[in-house]
Amino acid sequence: MKARDWLVSGDGNYELCKSVRPWNLLQDNYRLYRFLTEVEDALNGLEDEYIKLPEIRKLVRKLILNSYWVKSQRFDPSPQNGIAVSVLYEELGFPFTVQTVKFFPGAMSTIHTHGTWGVVAVLKGGKKIHFGSEEMLLMVKSK
């Protein structure tokens, strides 16, 4: 299946967004610290971070495409709830966190909000949103 970008608003409305071609995102030596700096630069001085979501989506795709280790992490979900969270980056005072979340097939997360924007990338498997089955996600969210 072709990768697609969706924008889901707080009221549950969603729309298909234009995606960047993968070959336009290829870059040698693209590391997590470069990604963090680029997202931070995109957000600096903004009152409304929402307007930068297209650029942040592009940067998330760039990280996934150029950083094989993000997709190859090995950690197992909890037998109790079928979910595991691995924090890739979180710093007190930094405006966002980066984490991967892994679900056993059939495990579900209850409907919730973090009270802010977030970018979720499905790395493997599928994600069913009832507006579920997920395997592994990369999430970048504002604090």
Please sum up the structure shown.
With 143 residues, the protein is an alpha+beta fold.
Task: Describe the protein's architecture and organization.
There is one protein chain. A hairpin with a 5-residue loop joins β1 and β2. It contains three helices and six strands, in the order ββαααββββ. By secondary structure, it is α+β, with helices and mostly antiparallel strands. The longest helix is centred in the middle third of the chain and has 14 residues. The protein has one domain.
Summed up, the domain count is 1
**How does the helix and strand content classify structurally?**
alpha+beta
| Overall geometric form | globular
Mean pLDDT, as a whole number? 77
Q: What is the number of beta strands?
A: 6
Radius of gyration: 15 Å
By DSSP (H or I, 4+ residues per run), the number of helices equals: 3
Physical arrangement of strands within the biggest beta sheet: 3-4-6-5
Distance between the amino and carboxyl termini: 32 Å
Brief descriptors of the model:
143 residues; 3 helices; 4-stranded antiparallel β-sheet; 21% helix; two-stranded antiparallel sheet
